[in-house]
Amino acid sequence: MTKIAIVGVGLMGGSLALCWKGKPGLHISGFSSNPASVDKYLKRGVVDSATTSLKEAVADADFIFLCVPVGLISDYLEKLQQVELKPGCIITDVGSTKRSVVECAARMKLQGAYFIGGHPMAGSERSGVEAASLYLYENAFYVLTPPEGTPEEVYNRLVELLQWTRAQIIRVDAEQHDDIVGAISHLPHVIAVALVNQIAGYNESNGLYRALAAGGFRDITRIASGDPVMWRDIFQSNKPVMLKLLDDWNEEISKFRSMIETNDGDGIMDAFKRAGKFRSELPERRKGVITALYDLYVDVPDHPGIIGSVATLLGSHRINLSNIQIIESRDDVPGVLRLSFRNEEDFEKASEVLKPYYVVHV
Ligand SMILES: NC(=O)c1ccc[n+]([C@@H]2O[C@H](COP(=O)([O-])OP(=O)(O)OC[C@H]3O[C@@H](n4cnc5c(N)ncnc54)[C@H](O)[C@@H]3O)[C@@H](O)[C@H]2O)c1
Ligand SMILES: O=C(O)C(=O)C[C@]1(C(=O)O)C=C[C@@H](O)C=C1
């Protein structure tokens, strides 16, 4: 029996657990310091066993996945030095930054266990085991950062276990990872949060700002709803990269400001053309980096029974919905439903079926 211990069974840890749950020869043990969370993991059936004792959770484990906020990964690595680990055990994490985690692991004495950094490039603004999904990692890139000298057999053992996620494993140096992911994931989160807060400030004196906020605002700001603790830890652990990126961002914005100030219409059009070209060349609906895979957004009138009508319409065309969520529901504006599908075929079909009746956004 291969034992996999998951420390922190939230969105990421819970989604990993779901990929392995019920597979022959695998036992998944969940750890949380909070007894109520342990009960929740068991009740939801995402793990085979769960405990508030780290020692018990990792005893005899072949793999240990640290799935807690980045700021806590070093604490758990330290704790792992003090408990008995199975010789040859592989410890990994799913933290969004890698340099600080890998450096910390290199300082630890892990009693013959190996540490390989990890970061699945998939996720969402939601958190907790309630948001976990068997399909979260499908088709996403999953970055691994093995330290120099990691035996190939050890690396391959982890890759083999991760095949259950259906993610595409990619080996990247930790420093390069933080530079790139800083730019394509961390910087956009800063921008989204700053933008929402700027508008929220205007809205304090005039509620029309929020009321009129439409598709463009929604598209660029979904990620502003991310978990505050998770993002605090990410920015703090990627500080030098973030500071450089924000300096570059200030420069980009200043260029825009000056194009508007000097009525440089050609410059503005050129900026849109270059951006449109780069964006159109992004990997087709690759999961994770900002866009969620196979999610449709549907504007719906705010009246009772609307969710039932949408679900019935899809059901009558034999389209399988994997999730449905109300992401805006207020008296004064139409609601927005987020519909998630497991595959491209259902996603495309749903878009066709709904378009004659509703405003549909991708
Ligand atoms: N959410 C994403 O989109 C995403 C994507 C890729 C990687 N990550 C990384 O994955 C890790 C987990 O993020 P998540 O989205 O699953 O968050 P989450 O909040 O859904 O889960 C975090 C888990 O850690 C546990 N936890 C929190 N504080 C704890 C503490 N003090 N002691 C013990 N357990 C504690 C929580 O109970 C929960 O089970 C983070 O390091 C994050 O950077 C997140
Ligand atoms: O899709 C989202 O909501 C995410 O924030 C996912 C996202 C990203 O920026 O792409 C966020 C953090 C991760 O470390 C990896 C993926």
From TrEMBL:
Reaction equations catalysed: prephenate + NAD(+) = 3-(4-hydroxyphenyl)pyruvate + CO2 + NADH
Pathway: Amino-acid biosynthesis; L-tyrosine biosynthesis; (4-hydroxyphenyl)pyruvate from prephenate (NAD(+) route): step 1/1
EC code: 1.3.1.12
Domain Prephenate/arogenate dehydrogenase per the UniProt entry, residue ranges: 2-290
Gene Ontology BP term (one): tyrosine biosynthetic process
InterPro entries in the record: 6-PGluconate_DH-like_C_sf, ACT-like_dom_sf, ACT_dom, NAD(P)-bd_dom_sf, PDH_C, PDH_N, Preph/Arog_dehydrog, Prephen_DH
PROSITE patterns: ACT (PS51671), PDH_ADH (PS51176)
GO MF annotation list: NAD+ binding; prephenate dehydrogenase (NAD+) activity; prephenate dehydrogenase (NADP+) activity
Residue ranges of domain ACT in the record: 295-362
Enzyme class, UniProt record, top EC level: oxidoreductase
Keywords: Amino-acid biosynthesis, Aromatic amino acid biosynthesis, NAD, Oxidoreductase, Tyrosine biosynthesis
Superkingdom, natural source: Bacteria
A Pfam family hit: PDH_C
Family: Belongs to the prephenate/arogenate dehydrogenase family.
Name of protein: Prephenate dehydrogenase
Source species of the chain: Paenibacillus contaminans
Lineage: Bacteria, Bacillati, Bacillota, Bacilli, Bacillales
